[in-house]
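Researcher: Go.
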Amino acid sequence: MNKKLPYFSIFVILISVVFLTSCVSNDNAKPPAPTVEITIINGDGNFERSDLITYVIKASLPGGFKQGSSGVIQPSGVGSNTPFPADVALRGDTTILDTMFLILARGAAMGTHRLFVDITDESNQNVSSETSYTVVPTGQGGGGTVPLLRGKATVDLGTEGNNMWSSYLASINGTVYQSGDVKANQANIDITFGVGNTGGPSLISPDQRSIVGLTAGNPVMDAPRTTFFKLEENGPTDLNLVRAIEVANDITASSNKNIQITANTTYSFVQGGTSGKKGYIRVLNLSGSGTDYTAQIEFIVQQ
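Model: Structure:
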């Protein structure tokens, strides 16, 4: 009996070690590692200030959702980090997270911004992902969903009685053409200036000039373009701040092919035909009398 007791004691000790080892192993077992992906789902990655950016976070969390946050790191390296709303897990479930978020590019610095997400599961395993978007100058973004804008241009125009400035503007390139060059460039000229029988200094569609008693260049245009104009009483006063998406959404075509203008007033225009490009005109200065007027205008137009 005395010889068997030590063997029995050793056997009990071994069983205890195996049992304890098993317990430790089970306590330390973790679920499969979580995965996450963050994706911007609107636009082409280029946004203007105040554009809306929509992104989706999709995660697989076998260990369950514990907490999460997302944020933006600016080009300077300064970042922000915002915890998920308390109900975020309820939008999917605790193991599969598929949630949409919205942010504004308001006040953002120009350049590339890193958009990131960080998630922790119930077993304290952490996973992260990031993507990026670019904040571009006003008029050059809109997420790629609308036409971009050409940079603002300022020109002087003269009516038919003005001997200093010409009347024929091509918004596509910002060129004011002399009457002798009008016919050769009629495919580009979309805005003209004159009085005729309109009652005062007016923006006039090229194909309307002869109807209001004016000639269209020398020699006369034989295929003039069509443009429609409209007074924008609540339109922008600073064209530097106009976004591409605002031009696309806020300007609608009128039926007016000529419109009298006044200083410090904003007008919109829409090209006719297959082009249909839109833009704003801001009259900065207007002076003169009779058929001799000078107007200084600035404008922006879709590319």
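Model: DSSP finds three helices and 18 strands in the chain.
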